[in-house]
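Example for reference:
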Amino acid sequence: MHARQIFVSALLLALSPASQVTAAPGDATARLEAGERYPGGSATARTLAGRHAFSSASANMDPARKLDFKIGNGFFKRLWVSAPASTQAADGLGPLYNARSCQSCHINNGRGHPPQGPDETPVSLVLHLSVPGDPAARARNKVTAEPGYGTQLQTFSIQGQRAEGRLQVDYEPLPVTLADGERVELRGPRYTVEAPAYGPLDPQAMLSPRLAPQMIGLGLLEAIDEQAILDLADPDDRDGDGISGRPNRVWSAARQKTMLGRFGWKAGSATVDDQSQEAFVRDLGISVPNHPNGAGDCTERQTACRQAPDGNSPQFDNLEANQQVTGLVALFSRNLAVPERRAPDSPQVLAGKRLFHASGCIACHTPRHVTREDATDPELAGQTIWPYTDLLLHDMGEGLADGRPEGEADGREWRTPPLWGIGLSTGVNGHSNYLHDGRARNLLEAVLWHGGEAQPARDAVSRMNRLEREQLLRFVESL
């Protein structure tokens, strides 16, 4: 479907404004609920704003474990170099890669951004690649790699190697008129691979851009009981509410079994450690316990890449980043604390909370969960948390579809992203790009891209008057 056709219905919305939502006596949406100010429970950080709002450790972490957290942070920031190098503990970059450090994509532990101009090579926006394959095989491998370029386009290379190509992003303006006459210009992206260095891509190659997400609260999400998430699933929409969230089931290399997917834009990774180790090998070309090949994501067709020296060293378990390194990075990643909310009991925010509930946003953005008592990290156990996600897959419509299956997720499905901390993103990263590829330049644009199961909620927001939209956005920004 052509991008402009997707929004025809938006231009024809009824012009009747939404009525002001009133709360019944005792309605929880009319007040600040117990614990709501501290979305990460007792692990919540008290850092409220600025570049380092996403950089605090779990507030209830004891000093000895905070030392491990800081060491993990050091590995997260490490700039890797090509092999051989005088420091074997930090060599092995590439040969093909997208960034030299984890921090390069997750700037200040926040979200990435798309290229700001035609001459910028994106670092924190990567292009995932695959070709159609046997759906049964995706349960273990998630995708079938593009035969010449692998599972991700690497846009940088070490000396003597050729980067795979350049990601080109072009935007088409898509004007939308809201019910009260306000006009919003969305931008519809088109992605191409320019100057492919290893021949043309497979004719059936599927491309999916992925923006680096913010890092806070990951361990708390991992600690939610699996059955509690499955209880929210309704794949056949038996209750008839139009919402049919379903789980992604993926192979966990760390646990050596199929598990519930929780992380990544399509819930393609089961644990923080799984997600982190995949990033090491795909983004940096660094071998890790789950992926010991020193050539990273190089394919069999890229012979020079596979023959290049690597940093797999006997003193580091014949890896470039051994279990000690990946374990500390995973501990750091699990314990990046969610910040305390800002003015959650202000009248404007509470009015927005009522609108958030009344418009149906909570059908996917489930406000509250409780973590298991046997969480991997003691700081994250038994916490009442407010992430505003169900961690399930939802059909988000043709406008956001990438057409690329991943595990059990199809080409129109995306995992509900958590909303906590979203109002601090601009202060952390200096921009307000949202959605899986950063196409939305503010929260309203992000809402207006919602389709599929979220279309009724999106239309409810489109029918609001300006004051109601401002209240709704104030609430979301307070999370």
